[in-house]
Amino acid sequence: MKIGQFQVYTGNGKGKTTAALGLALRASGAGFRVYFCQFIKDQPYSEIRALGMLPNVTVRQFGTGKGILTYREKEDADLACARAGYEQLATALTSGDYDVVIADEINCALMCGLLSEADLLRLADLRPEGTELVFTGRGATDAILRRADLATEMHLIKHYYQEKKLPARKGIEM
Questions:
Q1: In a domain? residue 1
Q2: Strand partners, 153
Q3: Residue 53: exposed, middle, or buried by beta-carbon count in 10 A (0-12, 13-18, 19+)?
Q4: Which CATH number fits the domain that encloses residue 98?
Q5: For the residues of the chain, what is the DSSP string, one character each?
Q6: Model pTM?
Q7: Is residue 65 part of a domain?
Q8: What b/e sequence results for 137-165 when a residue is b if at least 16 CB atoms lie within 10 Å of its CB, and e otherwise?
Q9: Which residues is 57 bridged to in the sheet?
């Protein structure tokens, strides 16, 4: 890839991680090397298992298993886990080993106070010209959206979580 871009998928609607997963699938199919770093989450979700089956895809998770709302009462372990993820992500981004670097739920890590806006903007500054960088998660700040080359907001219109009280389903949401 000659020219990489900085993409952001944010908003309250469903589909941010799914968009990044689609990009990882497409990039892997094109022979690109992909680093998929997931913040907040630490479960063996279906997408993590599927990504592990793709060629040229490295997957890392950096979460302590809390729900997003419980990070309001963050502990030292939560901050240390996010910091470790950030450092490994920065290393992967600048290593030259990857064509596509995806930071899934990194905006949520910012929103929860696990990382700072300056941390995320630093990653955008570190992005080599030939590397695609993707941030996902609710709560992307205006500064991050301005820095992005592509910014998409997933807008919630209707969701069966609220309408039918339907929990997350394996293979669909998890």
A1: no
A2: 10
A3: exposed
A4: 3.40.50.300
A5: --S--EEEEESSSS-HHHHHHHHHHHHHHTT--EEEEEES--S--HHHHHHTTSTTEEEEEE--S--GGGGGG--HHHHHHHHHHHHHHHHHHHSSS-SEEEEETHHHHHHTTSS-HHHHHHHHHH--TT-EEEEESTT--HHHHHH-SEEEEPPPS--HHHHH-PPP-TTTT-
A6: 0.93
A7: yes
A8: bbbbbeebeebbeebbebeeeeeeeeeee
A9: 34
> Percent of the chain having pLDDT more than 90?
79
Q: Does any domain span residue 24?
A: yes
Q: Which amino acid is at 23?
A: L
Q: What is the pLDDT of residues 92-147, one digit of tens each?
A: 999 999 999 999 999 999 999 999 999 999 999 999 999 999 999 999 999 999 99
Phi, psi of 52 (to 5 degrees): -65, -20
What is the pLDDT averaged over residues 58-73?
81
pLDDT of residue 68: 67
Query: What is the tally of structural domains in the chain?
Result: 1
- What is the arithmetic mean of pLDDT over 78-91? 97
Q: Residue 92 to residues 25, 26, 153, 161: CA-CA distances in angstroms?
A: 19, 20, 26, 36
